[in-house]
Design goal:
419 residues, alpha+beta, Creatine Kinase, Chain A, domain 2, 2 domains, ten-stranded mixed beta sheet, 14 helices, 34% helix, globular, binds glutamic acid, binds magnesium ion
Length: 419
């Protein structure tokens, strides 16, 4: 005998979906009431323990399920994934500002005040265990074949979960694959990223495998990136592109991306938030090293993606800029939220893009450097209260301290066990 359980979770500061389950029979009431959590939950480290907390043992909050992110995916073995993603709110239903999903939603509201909305798509790389690694497998049809039913099951799971799978491919690294979900509006694009990670884990788990999203499995290995493609829209009109403008980026959208470049060191604290993230952001990995904008350059932090003139889609609809400094140790809501807040600042201050080919500053070289940049970025204080910002920095510094002087290969192993 079995009684279906439904889980309500939020993707937290550590980028992990945590929450609570309840009998499906109670869904109607739980949709209203949510599930209870404490304030300190947000400070659970990626490794498990609470190393530091601003809240102690006091207080109650609710994860309020979003009925639009209801996942019900049955698998052939008779089991199913049943969960909701939601917001962490106060018990009276009001916003709790430490909630990552709310952090993004507030940023998007500020962007809407500037008359713009954001459409984004997350492209995520991971390593699939259990696949035979053979020489010459990079991007090979044979590597696609050797992952068996994983990819097709993942595509079906994503579609059943209410999202649109865009692609699945064998990547460059050993046993490395990549899946992309089609672009979605604002918060839903980050929901899609969270669901894609969970569905990949869910499908892998059912065959005794793991989909490992950690940024690097070995310090000198191939990185797993999370690339975020973005375009700005004014109502139904795409407004990112102007073929005559530098980089092809319109005067309307340019300040947004200039803001992202200006705040990039601080943004790294959210998009590349693990110690291992910085083994990936090193030369010759097709990952960024500079806070730069490049046209069709996969080594750039921001890459103007190519246009395909033979596509039936108009150029203005296709045009997007890809943010490449993220990995899957990030919480998609915090990562995209930080990008949006930085873009909003760029728009407010009418920042200009650097001239094409200009020299760019280096990205932070470590999580400690990124956190110092976040601490020093005065503007980042307006994204969040001083308390929330300080708590996040303390939370991440505790993660660095917990690793102590562990060797880089063990650091990779620690994160690979988690993500
Ligand atoms: N694996 C690279 C990264 O870490 C990206 C390779 C690609 O361009 O797809 O970001
Ligand atoms: Mg890739």
């Amino acid at each position: 005998m079995k009684e279906p359980l439904v889980f309500v979770g939020a993707c937290d500061w550590a980028g992990i979906v945590r929450g609570k389950g309840f009998p499906e029979a109670d869904s109607a009431i739980r949709l209203k009431k949510g599930v209870g959590v404490t304030h300190t939950n947000i400070m659970m480290s990626c490794f498990g323990p609470i190393y530091t907390t601003s809240f102690g043992t006091a207080g109650d909050l609710i994860i309020r399920p979003d009925p639009k992110v209801r996942i019900e995916v049955p698998f052939e073995d008779g089991t199913a994934e049943r969960f909701y993603l939601g917001d962490i709110v106060n018990t009276d239903g009001s916003d709790w500002e430490y909630c990552p999903r709310t952090f993004l939603a507030r940023g998007l509201k500020a962007l809407a005040k500037a008359g713009l909305r954001l459409v984004a798509s997350f492209e995520q790389e991971f390593v699939l265990t259990g696949v035979e690694d053979r020489p010459g497998a990079t991007y090979a049809l044979d590597a696609l074949r050797r992952q068996g039913a994983f990819g097709e099951t993942l595509m079906a799971a994503l579609r059943t979960a209410g999202f649109t799978p865009d692609s699945f491919l064998p990547e460059y690294g050993p046993r490395q694959y990549e899946a992309t979900v089609a672009a979605e509006e604002g918060v839903r694009s980050a929901d899609a990223a969270v669901v894609m990670r969970e569905m990949a884990r869910a499908v892998a788990w059912r065959t005794g495998q793991r989909a490992i999203f950690a940024p690097m499995l070995a310090p000198d290995g191939i990185g797993n990136g999370t690339h975020i493609h973005m375009s700005l829209w004014d109502g139904d009109r795409p407004v990112t592109h102007d073929p005559a403008a530098p980089y092809g980026i319109s005067a309307r959208a340019a300040p947004f991306f200039a803001g992202v470049l200006a705040h990039l060191p601080a943004i790294c604290a959210f998009t590349a938030p693990s110690v291992a993230s910085y083994y990936r952001l090193t030369p010759n990995r097709w990952a960024p090293v500079y806070a730069n904008l490049g046209i069709q350059d996969r080594g750039a932090a921001l890459r103007v993606a190519p246009l395909f003139p033979t596509s039936p889609e108009p150029a203005a609809d296709q045009f997007n800029v890809e943010f490449r400094v993220a990995d899957a140790s990030s919480c998609p809501y915090l990562a995209l939220g930080a990008i949006v807040w930085a873009g909003v600042d760029g728009l407010a201050r009418k920042l200009a893009l650097p001239p094409v080919g200009a020299e760019a500053p280096l990205l932070p070289r470590s999580l400690a450097e990124a956190l110092a940049a976040l601490e020093a970025d005065e503007l980042a204080a307006s994204w969040w209260s001083a308390e929330a910002k300080a708590a996040y920095i303390t939370f991440k510094r505790a993660e660095i301290a917990a690793l102590g002087d562990v060797a880089p290969s063990d650091v990779c192993a620690r994160y690979a066990a988690v993500y």
